[in-house]
Protein 1
Amino acid sequence: MSSFSQLKSFWNFLGRNKLFTAINIFGFAVSLVFVILMSLYIQDEKSVNAAQPNKNRIYYLSHDRGGHFPCPLAAELKSRYPEIEATLRMQRQYWTISDGVRESILDHVLLADSSFVTMFELPWIEGDPARAMRTRDDVLISQECARKWFGSEPALGKTIRINDRDRIVTGVYRDLEDTHFKPAAAILPFENVVENWGNDILTNSGNCSFSLYVMIKPNVQFTQENQDAIESYLKENFWLFKNGLVDTLTMETLSEVYYAERPMEWMRTNNKSFLMVLGITALVILLFAVINYINLSVAQSGFRAQEAATRRLLGSSKTSLFSGFVLESLIICFISFCLGIVLAMAVEPWFGKVMWTDISVAESFTAPNILLALGGIVAIGVVSGLVPAYVLTRFKPIDVVRGTFRRQTKMVYSKALIAFQYAITIVLLGATITIGRQIDFMCNSDLGFKHDNILVMDYSPGENGSRDGLRNVLMAVPGVERVGFAQGTPATGSNNNTFERNGKQHSFQVIGLDSTAYDMMGFQVVKRTGVDDRRAVWLNSVAWNDLELTDNAPTFRLWDRELKVAGILENYHIDNMEKPIGSVMVQFISADDWPWEVLIKVSGQNPYAVADRIKEAYLEYNGREPVEGTFMDDTIQQQYTAQKRMADIITALSLLAILISALGMLAMSTYFMRQRAQ
């Protein structure tokens, strides 16, 4: 019989066995939905910085405590090491923008050296890299920013007022797509940093607030030995290394920066382990679908055996039968893939929201992806069809007549495959329950301080403002209960103080609060020393034990100062709960100290509406200087966004695994029913 007649017979078989057809195609299609989406997501994440022409020559510098360096270090490295072609300093700012009529706040402005446009290839809409960022008043703006302020007119050469200074637009770019940079509304020359920091910042080696990149000259072999030499120089000349505050210099290429452990706030990042988990999970789900197809096909082998025996008696070879059954598998796989594409487009919005991605299935139909998909379909189809083809072609026609084929097809491996499915499903369910309980514990357990309905805002009272004046303005806002001031909080971060005592290095997180902010935090007191002095500090239990203080010790020495100790506070988490609790010192700030943040306790009814009123009153008081604010609860929850994202994906995959396992159970039941019916 011809291949055409075999395919026609297969088509009739599918029509007669609609349940078998629906389960096979649907099971394959639903599995392929996640395989398709996860593959596109991983492909998109792997493409970050991949198109940058200098990706192998650009290095991002960081150390044990992050990617913070002083301004003068860039020039020092460039002059000392001839293999360095260019350096780049960067910092993120919040500035105002105005066209004389409208005014807005740009919450993401990058200050960067002019080398930015030569080191990185921007997606230019207007302008020329050779003529961009040549003066301090030049500015590059995003396409979205250009549309907002200039409409459909060309923005190149136009003037826009940013931070109360006229700027000339020398370039327009699309959002910094396919790079590790978050979308930036504008990029200005780094020299503008003096507007917030003063002229001394450019020569100040003590202020480590800026990021640093270096680009190596072409055809220069930059090895670990070169990096070690730079690290040795920093240990001799850079105070963070000299004082033992940090130990290791890390230099990451652009392909590594996206997975950096210590990213800056303007950088997009991801986790290699997370991508690996997604890839492995996608393969497991695909394996589930293949196992189901094999089991369902074997379950139908009793019916197909008579057809195969007839073909053999009419002259068909074993090889042609084998290839015919594999071809049937390819057809099922192709139909399932087409259905999977449609379902993937439907699920795309949910997937994009969970994974923070804008991947598009429709836009992914490129020639390489189509070829890759076809290759995958062929591979999956062949693998899926091998076992059923082997089962249906290994017998002798006379076995079908005698009825012995039924006994021969009671195969142990079908049970083993189903057992494997159940085992993986149980593992996924266990992981889902465990991760869910862990996240619930981290997000809702007692952290050791109060954080409900506390709004944390930057302290920026304006040129003529004051702490008391700002407090009075904010207290007049309906819904505001208390206003305090702080230098760091347990949720938003604090300052680090590293010192030596009795020949041992100690590192503390130091939080400064006024009395209102201290009461607002609600720290739990473990022990009081009896010292009654407002200048006395509080230590958490970890710090007390680290300093090896005796019971009720009234003081301890910090550098050349003798600090009074008020007592011990209960340990609390200053970072997410995955990290161990460190040493913390809480001190009171005086009226002369400059706070970093304003802590505002608001009423529990509609706190976000109160926050909007607070921000408007704040901006009116300080002359519209940009301020940023977020609720402490939201900051704490954001610490676990990656874990929540993983939990959402694992939950979805667990539900899918249950569905596929149920189909596997149906396959096994069908298998035995078919065997008994023969």
Note: The CA atoms of residues 14 and 367 lie 32 Å apart.
Protein 2
Amino acid sequence: MPVLFKLKDHFKENQLYFNRSVAALIMIGVLLFILMARLVYLQVFKYTTYATLARNNQVRMISIAPSRGLVYDRNGVLLADNLPDFSLEISPNMVKDLDDLIAKLSKIIKISETDIKTFHKQRKYKGRFERIPIRNKLTDEEVAVFSIEKYQFPEVEIHANLARHYLHGEAFAHVLGYTGLLSEQDLSQIDHANYRGTYVIGKYGIEKSYEDVLRGKAGFEQVETDARGRMIRHLDEIPPVAGENLYLTIDSKLQLAAYDALQNFHGAVVALDVKTGGVLVMLSKPSFDPNLFARGISQEMFSKLQNSKDRPLFNRAIRGQYSPGSTVKPLIALQALDLNVITNKTTFYDNGYYQLHAEGRKYRDWNQDGRGLINVETAMTESSSTFFYFVADKLGIDKMHDIFVRFGLGTATNIDIDGEAIGIAPSPAWKKKAMRQSWFQGETLITGIGQGYTLATPIQMANVASTIARRGARIQPHLINATQIADQEPRPKEYAANSLPSVQLNNKEHWDSVIKAMEEVIKNPRGTAHWIYSPRNKYTMAGKTGTVQVFGLKQDEKYSELLDKGKIKANLRDHKWFIAFAPVEDPQIAIAVVIEHNNGGPMVARKVMDAYFADQVQQTQAENKDGQ
């Protein structure tokens, strides 16, 4: 019996062991089944998804910057080009310790604190796999040095770019503007998809105003990389689209003639094509070299330009607001004649000053000796302020404000470049709003000679001259002549013939009276610009000079006497204006020149017009030769 019980217990133990073994085998079988099912699921049903993920781990899309559009003048002369340039670029995704890498790089390539700050600002806005420049404008020597040490820096590449180059430097700086590195402010405002692969943007002038046209569209290169992110082979490419070329209305020969004629004076010159409104010249002096910005200007140099008392970064042509002086007298004369306040035969005795009443203040003429009996033509020719005090007194401020506004003073010309100032066409309502003060009759008198609160820009005054030349027909000034897609013909940009409200007169013959008087300003020996007249010139010119006082004179003081005695500092001398158009019979070019604290505007205008008509003669001769 005991043996039977022992056999029975042994059998039970074996049965339990067997059961456990079977359960274990079943469990292993279930686990193997689950594993196989998972492998089948991943290999068959999720193959596409995971194959794509695996491929993405070794394939990168690298942005390719487009080449920026070129800029030409109206005759096809190249003004803004692109030149080869090299930058040192880091792929941050491949770097464990950026600070350590930059420190090592700095030992072989000069990297400034500004470079490092700019690099980190760019990182905030760039994609994970995009290269970011740590240094631009590498010299040939720096490229050679890095090439030798390249094996130490697999995360760093030298990248070839195209950098902006301005062929005429200072002479075109204020019209072309310049490009510069994207700033943090730029990066916070732009659409980043439009700036893949590029780090520059138009900052000023045409470069800024036509950024969307000049920039182009980025391309992409698909490359295969190894585990460290290094490129193994090229897979595919979507080429970039170059920016469009621009053809300006500017005539480079005239621009350079104006640049030379203005010499070292502070001032501006604007010349317009009377037929089209195209800007032939836009010059501001002092100027600056825009290539400094395109190459990456240092903070020290930028501060020097920005803080200079000469204000070289200030575009006087569209932003300079000056009292227009006697250049408004043609407008005052037109209004007074057209409203029958005076006639061509109206005379006034000029004794050198005008008084509102017998005991009142004397409003003096620049010629304090007086001229005797004069009419509107004589007053225009000799620029008699006394006569125009008299006319302003009779017209009143409201009627003067009206003619100023109709000629576009106090409003923007809306020229296609950023930064235009609007000036001031004063009125009692304006003064009440701006200064919370009432208008005084004495202010009416000085408004009649373009002084007081009246302010105008050179572009506005060039447009005034053009409007007189066109006998009231106003046209929109503009800088773009045509655009051009690469490998295609330029497409002319269309502008309306008379895009601004015209100046309508009750009697159109008054245009003849004013234009004749403006012609006498140059032709008549007593004219204020007669000193530039020469009978040898093959074209006629009509113009008007203007003088702007920078400080007030006492009642008995004479500017000329103080000047002769050396009692007027250079920065307190009068500003000088000159507006003109030519030829009188069939106007083609209108011009405005302002020179700060000095004279010479009429001669600057003469030299620009001489260059213009010399080109016209040469062009006509060439056309005649081709036609034979």
Note: The two ends are 144 Å apart (CA to CA).
